[in-house]
Amino acid sequence: MFPFRSLLVNVFIFTVVAVEDDSILEEDGGWVTKSEDRIAHPGLCNIMVEDGTLTQEQFLERYAYSQPVVIRGASDNKVFRSLTQRTALLDGYGHTTVRLSSANSYSYAKRDISFQDYCSNHVHPQKLSTLGNETFYFFGDNNHEEWENLLEKYKQPPFRLPHHTAALSFGLAGPGTGVPFHFHGPGFAETLWGRKRWFMYPPHINPNFHPNRTTLQWFIEEYPNRKEDINLFECTLSPGEVIYFPDKWWHATLNIDSSVFISTFLSP
Fold first, then answer.
1. How far apart (Å, rounded) are the C-alpha atoms in residues 257 and 133?
2. Which pTM value belongs to this model?
3. Mapping DSSP to helix (H, G, I), strand (E, B) and coil, where does residue 14 land?
């Protein structure tokens, strides 16, 4: 009935499980995170990891329609990363208005503020007591005319889904923030500054999460009882690493540091 199950078990057994280094990042692009503000830390990775030698044919055969994958060295975005340092972004876009989204999975609440205001007053550690509908972050809803000069510098992952087109979504947020469990079409996400933990479930497994609890609350309250679940996929992305999520896979994210990130959403 569930074609994923045998695949999930095999991946969990044969993927190397490793705890990533939790040392302070040598570079943060000006998005400073104090040690005491890091509530979450890097964890194990039971998602398959590929390097830059992965071909388009292998991507389609192994991952595109069946399971997530982390890809290291897929593209070189050093130039784009330099443009997303704190000083560079504020110089170029501090005057613009950005639209923030609620961290409640089922809410469409939005809030408009200046990018300068967001960076100065809202990129801060997530409070454990703050609910999803009280948490707003900048991700997506980019004014593509205003941000076009930046986004066009991004080198998208060199993999494609047949008959799908790509749309970019750029964002940044403070430590402990993240998107709660949700699903949509397939896509890629790359971390540019900071580190981000990813948690994923295949389409046929319900994560059983509360839509108004933040990922941080889920991580503190629920994750300790679920981390041995063979249906739970997870990995920590460091700067320059890309993750692919297939169509309708549940996923949630948790920023370890103040993080800058970009997603490539694929739609038919």
1. 22
2. 0.89
3. helix
- CA-to-CA distance for 196 and 135, rounded, in angstroms? 18
**What count of other Cβ atoms lies within 10 Å of the Cβ of residue 209?**
19
**In contact, 72 and 247? CB cutoff 8 Å:** no
Q: 202 near 65, Cβ under 8 Å? A: no
160 Cβ neighbours under 8 A, 6+ residues apart = 56
The answer to whether 18 touches 236, Cβ cutoff 8 Å, is: no
CB burial readout 108-121, b (16+ within 10 A) else e: eeeeeeebeebbee
Beta bridge partners of 72: 241
Alpha carbon distance 66, 1 (integer Å): 15
Each residue's pLDDT expressed in tens, for the chain with a length of 268 residues = 334 333 333 333 334 444 445 445 568 999 999 999 999 999 999 999 999 899 999 999 999 999 999 999 988 999 999 999 999 999 999 999 999 988 887 777 899 999 999 999 999 999 999 998 888 888 877 777 889 999 999 999 999 999 999 999 999 999 999 999 999 999 999 999 999 999 999 999 999 899 899 999 999 999 999 999 999 999 999 999 999 999 999 999 999 999 999 999 999 9
Tokens of 78: 């050093």
